[in-house]
Amino acid sequence: MSKNYITRTVEGVKVTALCLDIESAEPSNEVVILNGKFKREAAIEKAAKTTLDTDTMKMVHIIGVEPVSYLAVMEESEFLKMSKHYASREEFAKARNEE
User: Please, what is the end-to-end C-alpha distance for the chain in angstroms?
Assistant: First the structure.
């Protein structure tokens, strides 16, 4: 019997950013994948900073941004084990609004 799979195409951006180690003053180029669609470069910069900034490393400039897309795949049985279950879309919407 063949296995069933759940698939989802995920879109995002690949960001190359100039970062600076504030302890050693060493610059480095870091790459991060940000999922989702971004309308403004300011939103990309904010998301990249949130991901890359640490106590000792700070993002200082975005060098490049390119769109990325990939297919995420999971066996249906694993998806059902890991997912939350709701009786209806309305019940899910209510639970989501309560978060």
Answer: 40
pTM, whole model, 2 decimals? Answer: 0.73
C-alpha distances in Å from residue 89, one per residue of 48, 80, 92, 96: 33, 16, 5, 10
Q: How far apart are CA 9 and CA 33, in angstroms?
A: 14
Phi, psi of 89 (to 5 degrees): -65, -35
How deeply is 56 buried, as exposed, middle or buried, from its count of CB atoms within 10 A (0-12, 13-18, 19+)? Answer: exposed
Q: What are the distances in angstroms from CA 34 to CA 21, 23, 37, 53, 58?
A: 22, 27, 9, 14, 17
Helix (H) or strand (E) holding 86: none
User: In tens digits, what is the pLDDT along the chain, a chain of 99 residues?
Assistant: 789 999 999 999 999 999 999 999 999 999 999 999 999 999 999 999 999 999 999 999 999 999 999 999 999 999 999 999 999 999 999 999 988
